């Protein structure tokens, strides 16, 4: 069975009740938790650091935590997030001077290795790093904020990335992040996406179970 996971992004959660929000969205059927780390430098917004992840683990959350690092420099935080309990770590090529080394660092920490591609970033970068990757995260909005609209040119890139992954004969997961909702989920899924990051569309819904069930039906 192909992986097809809904990854609620806690960027849109109520931070004053973060542990409960995560527990609730997992009980409602979320598969993994997407954890958006922003530094007000690589992106114009500021969120949470490794201490917050550590306290989520201490609270008893055992699900896969998919850490999306939108920070520069990134290497120190790769190690800190791994120590805090990350399972997947995705970084952006623009956030490091030595991408190959940073990707190796994620692997040496024992985490799954992800590369995030922004809307205006070329896919050429994949040519020399594909062998290092477990996940390609295609940004369908410019990173920094939840609640933005899905950028339509992502579809063309999705097609290209899917082909690159298939031709590599490697088990690389294709993840899409930004602007995903009930209306566009089915079309996005038709490109063979494995992980769907959903922030505002889940957390703005009153009933997490209902919205996640409705989304799951679109995937089946
Ligand atoms: C944006 C983040 C996303 C964001 C998605 O920089 O990487 O994960 O939380 O939020 P929505 O689903 O509201 O676009
Ligand atoms: Zn993200």
TrEMBL record:
Organism for this UniProt entry: Buchnera aphidicola subsp. Melaphis rhois
Keywords tagged on the record: Carbohydrate metabolism, Cobalt, Isomerase, Manganese, Metal-binding, Zinc
GO cellular component, one term: cytoplasm
Pathway(s) annotated for this protein in UniProt: Carbohydrate degradation
Reactions mediated catalytically: D-ribulose 5-phosphate = D-xylulose 5-phosphate
Source superkingdom: Bacteria
Gene Ontology biological process terms, A to Z: pentose catabolic process; pentose-phosphate shunt
Residues the entry annotates as binding a divalent metal cation: 34, 36, 68, 177
Database matches in Pfam families: Ribul_P_3_epim (PF00834)
Known role: Catalyzes the reversible epimerization of D-ribulose 5-phosphate to D-xylulose 5-phosphate.
Enzyme class, first EC level, given as a word: isomerase
Gene Ontology terms, MF aspect: D-ribulose-phosphate 3-epimerase activity; metal ion binding
Keyword Ribonucleoprotein: no
Name by which UniProt lists this protein: Ribulose-phosphate 3-epimerase
Similarity comment text for this entry: Belongs to the ribulose-phosphate 3-epimerase family.
Xref: PANTHER family: RIBULOSE-5-PHOSPHATE-3-EPIMERASE (PTHR11749)
Co-factor binding details: Binds 1 divalent metal cation per subunit.
Entry EC number(s): 5.1.3.1
Cofactors required: a divalent metal cation; Fe(2+); Mn(2+); Zn(2+)
Amino-acid positions noted as binding substrate in the UniProt annotation, renumbered to this chain: 9, 68, 144-147, 177-179, 199-200
Residue positions of the active site: 36, 177
Family matches, as Gene3D superfamilies: Aldolase class I
Encoding gene (name): rpe
